[in-house]
Input
Amino acid sequence: MNILNELYEFTADFAICHITQKETEMLLNIKNLHVAIDGKEIIKGLNLGVNKGEVHAIMGPNGTGKSTLAAAITGREGYEITEGEIWYKGINIVEMDPDARANEGIFLSFQYPVEIPGVSMTNFMRTAINAKREYLNQAPISAGDFLKLMEEKKNLVEIHSKLTNRSVNEGFSGGEKKRNEIFQMAMLEPTLAILDETDSGLDIDALKVVAKGVNTLRSEDNAFVIITHYQRLLDYIVPDFVHVLYDGKIVKTGGKNLALELEAKGYEWIKENQLV
Amino acid sequence: MEVNNSNTILDEVTQGEYKYGFYTDIETEMAPKGLTEDTIRFISEKKQEPEWMLEFRLKAFRHWQQLQEPEWAHIHYPKIDYQDIIYYAAPKKKKELASLDEVDPELLDTFNKLGISLDEQKRLSGVAVDAVIDSVSVKTTFQDTLAKHGIVFCAFSEAVREHPELVQKYMGSVVPYTDNYFAALNSAVFSDGSFCFIPKGVRCPLELSTYFRINAANTGQFERTLIVAEEGSYVSYMEGCTAPMRDENQLHAAIVEIVALDHAEVKYSTVQNWYPGDKEGKGGVYNFVTKRGLCKGKHSKIAWTQVETGSSITWKYPSCILMGDHSIGEFYSVAVTNNYQQADTGTKMIHIGKNTRSTIISKGISAGRSNNSYRGLVKILNGATNARNFSQCDSLLLGDKCGAHTFPYIETRNESSIVEHEATTSKISEDQLFYCNQRGIDTEKAIGLIVNGYAKEVLNKLPMEFAVEAQKLLSITLEGSVG
Output
């Protein structure tokens, strides 16, 4: 390990240590999380702290629990939290319904977005936005404001008008589906956005569009957790922290160069380190 | 977050209370309980009918006495005691009404609860409403506008008096009283209904609309509708139904007949949300309806669109007899059943003429412990050269205690015909629900959204005024409605 890496390690450790001290102010604070599916433990004591304004990348080989983590944070049924806590905006959200979590500002860009036949994107988005407004005791959005918002966000993610006229994800190509996820993210303006393998199956142009969307939305008031298998996306969305998830735990945390190192050395390197 | 939880949500979502369970206290004039020739004479006399009408009723009654109640449908219910039913109930007439102001305020209130303020309809929507409360047509609007075009749109009983030649010519020509058990019963005791006549070459400028409503306790409603579209005419007709909440089952056996002559087109749309019974399956309307259209002329077209969300039992097959060459029959249906509701519904497309075409799109949605059956017949007769049919029957299941069944019958006797049938059965997936949840949409709203999307193809066929109501109804039926 060279000096630079050690320095990154140190910075990261320092950062984690630092945020631990003011936990209550953290946007997301996951403590000793254990998650099981059908009784089989997938996440085995995971800790993660995310502050507003930060971008965290979670990397790791297949089957180590990356998507399970996303599902647990968003409250998907069938993902049983057997131990630990998920603090979000100072509330332990483990018992909170998934729609309430969404309305509190947690957004998941799905790895495999589902099709909903017969429901237009426009109708879907309007329902979602009004659900959030209802949750926040606000009046429904007017038709005019809604259309204006749609136009604005469509330009942001370079999505074609005809896509939003179609049914939700129905007949969309892989790239269109992922772009549509970013479009929805732009529409809903989440505080915490989790991107689950958004880069998989994307060509370089689509990847740039997705990255541009994220970079435009990135601000001091929100945070991103980017789950990815490859370093490629991180060339365009530069993370503040990179975590390596292995066998249900975060085994290594570093700065953006950790991703490069992983890319160069492969995950075998992590496995070997684990054994040491 | 276990599976149990989702079932609980689904239960809650699918067990909405009936929202139209109010009862209007209007003095009613009733026939004595039971069914004899005397009952029929009573009805006929009450309605001051001509002799030929009484004769028709009596013939139908005598025929009905020979018949057995059909048992082939996939529905189960205790035997109906036909002698325990009141066959005629009319709101007591005070005097002839000249304007809406004179209508019983309670009656108007009922309309308002149903969301069909006549005033508003009159002013805003340009819809002529012939409202039927327990058998007697109370108020008909827009008569003048229609009269200018020579269109007749009135209560059936009025047509019997004012247009006897038309009624005699067409009544029973599509659904003869010998047709089936319930058609015979209706022909004997029908109380009122609507009559619509569109003369040659006239395109009806309004959507015609009838709201039926069963009101008094223990009264069956037996309305009868006859629509005649002459050569080259067009009409879009809407029928909507609600019934107040009652413990006893109410029998409803209606007949709708449509005749379309050369190049005529009739669109008939129904939104039916009669009381479906409570969550335990107690009460609710028994709906045994015979609806049939005759494409008598060449290039004529009849399209049925129905959204069936109510009744504890639905037995209904709006059909088309494609007699004229190049005639077209269409059937678009959404049937929702919840709790203990049972629906056996579909269509019959009888191809007689050459180059006749039919389309069937049926979307069944079952929830709770309900049973939902599609039953359809496509029959191509010898002479129906180049007949075409396309059928699509989809079933959507919510939960794991309901049933969806498809009974398609295809008979073809002409080798040049092409008949296609597609069927799918699906469930609302956990993935779809979670996707919606993750966007902040709760499960109840999500089901509404998904179901409306699923039924969109059919809902799109409804006139605008109805489409919105139908969407809400789907949501209400499955939430506190399935939406």
About this structure: The first strand of chain B starts at residue 28 and ends at 30. Chain B has a mean pLDDT of 80.
